[in-house]
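As a warm-up, study this chain.
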Amino acid sequence: MTPREPLCRCAPLQVLRRLVLTAWIACMAPDMASADAAHPADAWVSTWIASPQPPLPHAVDHYEAQSLRLIAHVSAGGTQARIRLSNLDGDTPLTIGAAHVARRTHDADIDPDSDRALTFHGHASVVIPAHATVWSDAVRVAITPLSDLSVSLYLPKATSATTVHILAQQTSYVSQPGNAVADAHFPVARRLDMWPFLSGIDVEAAPPLFAVAAFGDSTVDGDGSTPDANQRWPDALAARLQQAGKHVAVLNAGLIGNRLLRDSPRGTPYGQALGEAGLTRFSRDALDQPGVTVVIVRMGSNDIGFVHALDPSGETVDANALIAGYRRLIALAHQHGVGIIGTTIPPFENASLPGYSTPAKEAIRQQVNAWIRQDQAFDALLDADQILRDPSHPARLLASQDSGDHLHPNDAGYRALAQALPLETLERLANRPARAPSPATANTRKGQAQ
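Now compare it with the structure written out below.
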């Protein structure tokens, strides 16, 4: 090791692939005031997140006085829990008639002894204004690391899923009409493979629990992994940490189709569904998550691959633009006192998305990777390119780690990424003293503030 320790699947997603191929934030403090009075704020650590995004324009899900049972595979355990609900992309208020959290047993069923009714500032229901996010009050419930939780929401009014996480890789459930949030055996009407409205779960646990946020695109989100098997790269890292006896949460802040520098491409059938630019959402989806002390960044592939392919705007990107974007992420992380690990861009030759892979784009990828390895601007490096590439043909993914689209790893590839990161690097960065910004970083911050 060197001193730096080199280290898009739901029904809406299917629509996306077909298309490709042919303030109430201020209310959060009062809502949690009574719950947090006896529990210091720094005791809360996020154990699971789903970055919010708009749905595909022609694949918006609808509910008619029904209940949702949303399944989340948490990373770290704790003795209390609270949930975050997001109406970030909704233009009208969202009414939650009732909400429960419980341990999932199998499919849509729960352990009734673990079932807890959730409140919001002491009330069983809540109306979340447009573009707002709220936390529930805390409830006491024993949560085991790497276990499945059920979050059940009753939607008493006709509701459209305007804020979702598209690539769940996890089956959730919609009930028959009625309030079924407390039912041990959920009356399933149909299945979901996205997460509507649920964007976070926190646990309260004794130190030294902290959180690592994996931030990026569909390779973080888990595209190519086995659905309902929790084989995404952050899942594999969370499992490895638990097996090593490390009390660390791992958060998945990935978004399918996301880019570092630009929002979801304009003038396309997928609308805003590919999310805001990574630079825009970095603080909200990674740095501001409770307990986060380290971020791992895995972005840049789509910035290169979308040019003259999924993005018809004619805008281009070069290595210098991506490098400037990475420097801004580094500046933001250091401003928050958070360690940041960079990853090289894995190969994508022959990617199944038309126009995604060209020799010119491969040249940009190589230029960016050379900078990531040599400049040492990140606090540490996870060399995803070296881990996933075919040694005999370095522009391609290794066949045994390729999900089949020549762009996303499979379960084995994601495990290889998780195994390659030295665990001591996470602990070192989590406990490192605040680092003074370099002149380049300071200039980046100044420019950003302006």
